[in-house]
Automatic annotation (TrEMBL), chains A, B:
It comes from the Bacteria. This is Probable aspartoacylase. It is an enzyme of class 3 (hydrolase). GO terms for cellular component: cytosol. One of its GO terms (molecular function) is zinc ion binding. The keyword Lipid biosynthesis does not apply. Its EC number is 3.5.1.15. The keyword Hydrolase applies. Binds 1 zinc ion per subunit.
């Protein structure tokens, strides 16, 4: 663990139709004083400008699945997003004097996820910062991805041990909502202020027990044999991200009006319920296990 | 005015990422008895299958702006949607024995529009049907577009004097919401049942005064000189479609936090507030005038 954060990257528009982060980046680029702190430098990056201009998640493939080390080192890969991932790695890491120590990647979701911090590792620094944020802001939830090592992590955040993605919702793709824009901006400031206090040696332990939602599995929509979906998220489950779901409770409603229940053996906490971009990934929701961690 | 409706077309997926209509069409195609009525034939049409498969509004251009008579007759136009528009005209109108008398085109919106009927003309039959639907269902609102003649109407509904589009929301692009799916399906059944009673000569006057929201103008987002937006729908206006907006009331919030107010001279009723697909059309909302019509 380093003693000081020297350089922070705030990234938006990794998915081109997630406007909250993309426009926040543009605001920060226009008014850099907002993200300036005395003890470190902050840079902004609009990660997928071509997809943002097109108002689409991506041009050729999901940029936030292009950061596997193996892919970044493969010279034969040449889709727009594969090239862009290499270019981003180069921008953020190549120059030893300008290497970033912390990456904040701003996303949005159609799911009712509030302000979710997506941890791709369990670095104590990230956990402490996440604990602090959830302590000062009740909208903040903490989701821990399933990747067991950096090597298998394809997210942009894999470029750097410190930092995480922020996933805000619910919001449709391709729009801005002022309240969510302001909440996200406030969260960015809370992160930067925390990093500043860390550099000043002024971090106080929050002494908190932290609730973390650990990824268990993902669930696909009910499907016909030809692969087309035959049902929707059940109205009783829609918008209930982070709430407990017990065996036997409604999960899907088929187009014919039949209720399909959750058939697992124990209570789970679903998130990413009805995320638009996950239909093509065969994910209707992710199931998590709520756990208390003592820091 | 004809004495009998012989053939009805229910259209969905005119915009490929508006899933409610597209999946309703698939359900009706799979279970045709649902839309069968004794006195007329009902056909379904997935209008833009290529855009639906891609999960995008359109491939080359907005299909629902390709139905100007002048464009349909121009043999030099050849984008995917221009060709598709000609093909749809051919499917629905070319065979004199199989010509449709009524078109219902199913759309969805990220705006809080409830179940909106979009009238592209003021045909008494359409007005009476709209009055009936708003009478039996309080979620139904009636919006009258600005086109003064069929000739300037580029919508799919311009193919047929009778019928209208249904615009349901709020819902993100690329997802299904069970409650809105069911409400839309119920509205389709109410339309078909009304047409059946019309053919049976059993339409009773509702004797109602009808509220119609007449299009006045559209308002763009506040912009910088380079054309990029510099603000969002004001939180106090978000989701307040069909509610009155008076001069001096908040309309936009700039990224810098400044409130911009409505500067018109009289009260208006905004709709299509923050519709995702209208950012590129330079429309932040449409302003309407609420009017009472006696049928």
């Amino acid at each position: 663990m380093m003693n000081k954060i020297n350089r922070v990257a705030i990234v938006g528009g990794t998915h081109g139709n997630e406007f909250t982060g993309a426009y926040l980046i543009q605001k920060f680029a226009q008014f850099p004083k907002l993200i300036t702190r005395p003890s470190f430098e902050t840079v902004t990056l609009l990660a997928n400008p071509k997809a943002f201009a097109a108002g689409r998640r991506y041009i050729d493939q999901d940029l936030n699945r292009c950061f596997l080390q193996q892919k970044l080192q493969d010279p034969t890969l040449g889709s727009y997003e594969e090239l862009r991932a290499k270019s981003i790695q180069n921008m953020l890491l190549s120059n030893r004097d300008k290497q970033v120590d912390f990456i904040l990647d701003l996303h949005s979701t159609t799911s009712n996820m509030g302000l979710t911090i997506i941890l791709v590792n369990s670095h104590p620094f990230n956990l402490k910062l996440a604990a602090y944020l959830s302590h000062v802001n009740p909208l903040v939830k903490i989701y821990r991805c399933s990747f067991s090592s950096v090597v298998e992590n394809p997210f942009l955040n894999s470029l750097c041990e410190l930092g995480f993605a922020i996933e805000v919702g619910p919001i449709a793709q391709g729009i801005l909502k002022a309240d969510l824009f302001q909440q996200t901006e406030e969260l960015v400031h809370q992160v930067l202020d925390y990093l500043e206090r860390f550099n000043e040696g002024k971090i106080l332990s929050t002494g908190e027990t932290l609730s973390v939602y650990h990824h268990l599995s993902s669930i696909d929509y009910p499907k016909q044999e030809d692969g087309s979906i035959l049902g929707m998220i059940h109205p009783q489950l829609q918008d209930r991200d982070y709430e407990p779901l017990s065996p036997g409770e409604p999960m899907f409603l088929t187009f014919e009006g039949k209720t399909l229940v959750y058939e697992g053996k124990s209570t789970v906490w679903p998130i990413f319920i009805n995320e638009a971009a996950y239909y093509e990934k065969l994910i209707a929701m992710c199931l998590t296990q709520k756990q208390q961690i003592n820091l």
